Amino acid sequence: MKIFWIFRAAMAAELDVVNLFFVAGATLAIPILAFLASFLLWPSVLIKVYYWYWRRTLGLQVRYADCGGYRFCYSYRGKPGMRPSILMLHGFSAHKDMWLTVVKYLPKHLHIVCVDMPGHEGTTRTTTEDYSIQGQVRRIHQFVGSIHLNRKVFHLVGTSMGGNVAGVYAACYPSEICSMTLICPDGIKHPCETKFDNHLQDLEQSNFTLNIPLIPTTPDEMEDMFRLCSHVRFKIPQQILQGLVDVREPHNAFYEEVFMKIIGEKSRYALQEHLHLITSPLQVIWGKQDQVVDVSGATVIAELVPGCRVDLLDNCGHSVVMEKPCRTAKLILEFIILQQNARSGTKKSS
């Protein structure tokens, strides 16, 4: 009888172990199946979850700033401290999360603010808004005031269209800027033509009836845009390409409106027209293989802005933030520290 009870207890223990493995397997299977379903059926949802998870991992919080009925969406990390705050302006048809790759390599104690540009992502979009470079500058100035970022001078960073906006901002509001980094900025008459310039000429000759390369509508066009903007060849699954198309597609009419504004006569060379008004220390970072805005633009800026620091990156295209995030973060931080030390030295000598 004793042997029977021992045997029964052993069998019960084995069943418990089997049940434990079954429950554990089922528990693991649910998120795996959910991931596969999202990847195959709803890749756009997976992309949004990915950005949410990355922001959370990096300690970034999303907030909204209301300005007389106009709402800005932005993410931030840290608080104003010894180092200047950093405001980051993204490029055309992008959003605040494009900076996550760079934020990852910046010290956590820095106060960093990444804002959705006017009409983009979570920031208000209206049919009466002025999306020219000057119009965007006015809105960003409104945002800066609403979160009191200009209580102290701050470092301004902008890439592509955001670089055009950042440069004009620094020219219009010089007292708010302590230093600035422009990454492959638009708005310059670069001496050498690029692949995108050729596309733009074809678009103008067709009276803009052809598809705009920066506004893809299919996975193949999305892949072509990545090839145009990036020198590094990223292997992106077809499902993710489709997800990116799905995320952008509802906004394509808006992107076309903004595109027509920023290539218009009023905005196309706005940065170059304002370079002579820039007084803050300037850093320019550019990918040597940029096929959208030619790297020769860096020479144009350096000739017109005395003391401009130029950092050219090998094996890098227009998407510097995506292709060389660690190097970009290091260069920005070095420049900020250098300029802060220079200001401290000037104060001590006086």
TrEMBL record:
Record Pfam families: Abhydrolase_1
Transmembrane segments: 20-53
Keywords: Hydrolase, Membrane, Transmembrane, Transmembrane helix
Aminoacyl-tRNA synthetase as UniProt keyword: no
Keyword presence, Metal-binding: no
Boundaries of every AB hydrolase-1 domain copy: 84-325
InterPro entries in the record: AB_hydrolase_1, AB_hydrolase_fold, AB_hydrolase_sf
GO MF annotation terms: hydrolase activity
PANTHER family: MONOACYLGLYCEROL LIPASE, MONOACYLGLYCEROL LIPASE ABHD6
Family designation: Belongs to the AB hydrolase superfamily.
Record's protein name: Alpha beta hydrolase
